[in-house]
Amino acid sequence: MTDDRLLTWPTAPIKTSRLVLRxxxxxxxxxxxxxxxxxxxxxxxGGPQSREELERTVPEVPGQRPGFFVVELNGExxxxxxxxxxxxxxxxxxxxxxxxxxxxxxxxxxxxxxxAAEACAAALAxxxxxxxxxxxxxxxxxxxxxxxxxxxxxxxxxxxxxQDFGAEQWFGAWSPAQ
Length: 178
Hints:
Elements: E1 14-15, E2 19-22, H1 29-37, H2 51-57, E3 68-73, E4 76-85, E5 100-106, H3 115-130, E6 136-141, H4 145-154, E7 157-164, E8 167-174
């Protein structure tokens, strides 16, 4: 996957009223593995990966790229935010929308407190400063009600629904205020 968006890291971590969004470090490997091994976290993402597979595939420092943020609460990692290049999926090609796709994973103990909305809003604000006018897309299964609520709360609007991975998918877009 090539990234022609020319993103650079913020000069300092992004701070919200409760959270810190920062670059990944070696100490985040365990949390990255926990996120991807969790049946709850990966319910709508194809299911958990085995610990053995994660031990082999997760790099020493996961997500070393601008747009990948570790989300901390009181010094503890609770999730990640990804603002990655929008990649095409077979059977669903929409190059006319945005070049950036929002993704996020949060540990189950962080659910229901508004942390995902707070962190995603901060990451989107950062991206709007880096790439003014850049549209962002988000995909989720319509069955994933919390993700659908988060998309609405963040201001994503539905572009279309389609079938993929044996389920109805929701595809939405967000644009920063001009």
